[in-house]
């Protein structure tokens, strides 16, 4: 082992960041990935590691509202930023977040391995309040690999979640025809 390797293995740094709305401070090795920090130091086990090489996207979390692959980031790079994992949504089965409801209703969950990443990416996509076609959603989620191959259910879930967020829990905004009739 070279002296350089030894230095990096033992070097630590104090990091302070906000995770799911709460400020956390920890002493961490400088080479610790953000994914391992979230899973091992903070017990946020929704962060799923598939490839650990930036390929599968299953480790996706939101950093200041934008999706990042947490296996490719170091914890020290997140200092001063806001990180969101899927635990930031509701843990109450009787009062789920609209995106969680939509994934359940459309059977977009399947084995669940890619689901935390898909849900967070959905939150990011829908932040602009725009409707999207199947092809547009397919393109937006293409960075996350679903091994259950049920992409159509996930696309339906994203669109359903969008309707819920724009139109309320039922997702029923009415149609142009309804509006014309004064409905
Ligand atoms: S585990 Fe990070 S991209 Fe696959
Ligand atoms: S739901 Fe199984 S990997 Fe996507």
How would you sum up this structure, described in words?
The chain has 183 residues and is α+β, with helices and mostly antiparallel strands. Helices cover 35% and strands 15% of the residues. The protein contains 7 helices and 5 strands. A 5-stranded mixed beta sheet has the order 2-1-5-3-4, with helices on both faces. β3 and β4 (66-69) form a beta hairpin. It is globular, with a radius of gyration of 19 Å. Bound molecules: FE2/S2 (inorganic) cluster (2 copies). One FE2/S2 (inorganic) cluster is lined by residues 49-52, 54-59, 69, 71.
Bound molecules: FE2/S2 (inorganic) cluster
Low-confidence stretches: 175-183
State the assembly state of the protein chains: single chain
Shape: globular
Q: What is the SS-derived class?
A: alpha+beta
Spell the H/E element sequence: HEEHEEEHHHHH
Question: Could you describe the largest sheet, including whether it forms a barrel?
Answer: 5 strands, mixed
User: Taking strands numbered 1, 2, ... along the chain, how are they ordered across the largest sheet?
Assistant: 2-1-5-3-4
Rg computed from alpha carbons, rounded to a whole number of angstroms: 19 Å
Q: What is the mean pLDDT?
A: 91
Strand content: 5-15%
Structure summary, number of beta strands: 5
Distance between the termini: 74 Å
Distinct helical segment count = 7
Give the fraction of residues assigned to helices.
Answer: 25-40%
Which characteristics define this entry?
alpha+beta, globular, binds FE2/S2 (inorganic) cluster, 35% helix
């Amino acid at each position: 082992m070279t002296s350089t390797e030894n230095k990096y293995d033992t070097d630590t740094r104090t990091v302070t960041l906000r995770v799911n709305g709460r400020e956390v401070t920890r002493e961490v090795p400088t080479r610790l990935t953000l994914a391992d920090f979230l899973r091992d130091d903070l017990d946020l086990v929704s962060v799923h590691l598939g490839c650990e090489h930036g390929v599968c996207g299953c480790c996706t979390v939101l950093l200041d509202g934008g999706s990042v692959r947490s296996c490719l980031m170091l914890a020290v790079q997140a200092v001063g930023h806001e990180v969101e994992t899927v635990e930031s949504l509701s843990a109450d089965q009787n009062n789920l977040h609209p995106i969680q409801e939509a994934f359940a209703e459309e059977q977009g969950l399947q084995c669940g391995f890619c689901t935390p990443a898909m849900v967070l990416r959905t939150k990011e996509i829908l932040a602009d309040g725009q409707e999207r076609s199947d092809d547009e959603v397919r393109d937006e989620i293409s960075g996350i690999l679903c091994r259950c191959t049920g992409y159509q259910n996930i696309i339906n879930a994203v669109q359903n979640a969008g309707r819920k967020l724009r139109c309320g829990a039922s997702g029923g905004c009415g149609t142009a025809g309804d509006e014309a009739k004064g409905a």
